[in-house]
Specification:
Layout (H helix, E strand, L loop, with lengths): L1 H12 L6 H22 L15 H6 L5 H26 L1 H27 L7 H24 L1 H6 L1 H8 L1 H18 L6 H30 L2 H25 L3 E3 L2 E5 H22 L3 H4 L3 E3 L4 E3 L11 E4 L2 H7 L3 E4 L1 H15 L1 H14 L15 H23 L4 H9 L3 H17 L3 H8 L1
Antiparallel strand pairs: 1-2, 3-4, 5-6
Helix pairs in contact: 1-2, 5-6, 5-10, 6-9, 6-10, 10-11, 10-17, 11-12, 11-15, 11-17, 12-15, 16-17
Length: 450
Amino acid sequence: MTELRHRGPADNDLPHQPSDDKASENELKAERSVSDGESKADVGLPEVPVSADDTPEVLNKALSGLSSRWKNWWVRGILTLAMISFFFLIIYLGPIVLMMIVLCVQIKCFQEIITIGYSVYHSYHLPWFRTLSWYFLLCVNYFFYGETVTDYFFTLVQREEPLRILSKYHRFISFAFYLTGFCMFVLSLVKKHYRLQFYMFGWTHVTLLIVVTQSHLIIHNLFEGMIWFIVPISCVICNDIMAYMFGFFFGRTPLIKLSPKKTWEGFIGGFFATIVFGILLSYVMAGYRYFVCPVEFNNDSNSFQVDCEPSELFQLQDYALPGILESVTGWSTVRLYPFQIHSIALSSFASIMGPFGGFFASGFKRAFKIKDFANTIPGHGGIMDRFDCQYLMATFVNVYIASFIRGPNPSKVIQQLLALRPDQQLYIFNSLKTHLSERGLLPLLEEAAA
């Protein structure tokens, strides 16, 4: 991006060339010389500028007697407690509010990343970049959320004629919207700034991939049961807090150059604390249907419902302890929810791989010489600064559910069957009847029905 700033005046000062090819050649030579010079300068990490103090005046007065280190500790602690309280509130308000919050967070994260690109792009006075960025965000959200509505609200969609038409041609409509934006981008290309415009086009699409796709996966996880939403997010929050606490009080050994304040003591302490936290939180939540049942839409009441018979994953079972643990604890067996075992995998990922989302964000910010994505939350930076690890976690949880948890869903199969023509339904009925008869299951079913 520094290259882009340096290129502006150079492009404007180029003398008029009678040949476009010659002008392009001179421009490419200038770009190569700037790039070569900057590649040498970028060998070391750039200095990150210190942002202005955005702490609320009330906290500034209350903590005025403390050193900057302890003042930052208290500011982060107070704001963290406020965010955790807000998190509990939206959980209490139910899945619809959670989905709305996820959408709002997605939009704010997108805005923070795009603003960084726009701060450079705007200096060239080129048209449509910000407009097209938000247009592509709208297109991608229309595609993903349209797929979700069709998948989870099938009966409602089939009941309403306009929704049925939109659902039937959803992907074609989504592609048409995207194609319109693509053509608008091509028409907005300006001579001598092609490279910059394609750079920002890629910037927008990578941002969409990181932000929108991951938030879509978070909502899919939520439909599997609120526990698949709350436990992973809470593990990341716990790891972030405990790693900070252990690093603050015991940190001595730097962990990674991209984030100099991170220490091995914080990393290891956060890992063990998160494992224990995940097991305990899973035990508490697995006993409530409100958290473990899939979020489903009730067609009779036209509202979401969270009520079911909990699966074996959320029923207490006896597990035999290894001999070493048995000699230490004196217990031969222990009663656990199977989900608690899965929570160890979730906690481990949140502690070991989750921080790499933060390291990635740190590298991104250092590359563009900014301290935070924004100043939305005093002491914490922007929303993206708080959710850089959450997006990586969302992908893992979705893949984990698909690989180890989710099985065939009879209700979705029935929904698809009901959408078929009567003759197709009869064909499937007769085929299934023949198959069950050959396996000897149909007479048993008839006797059980009688």
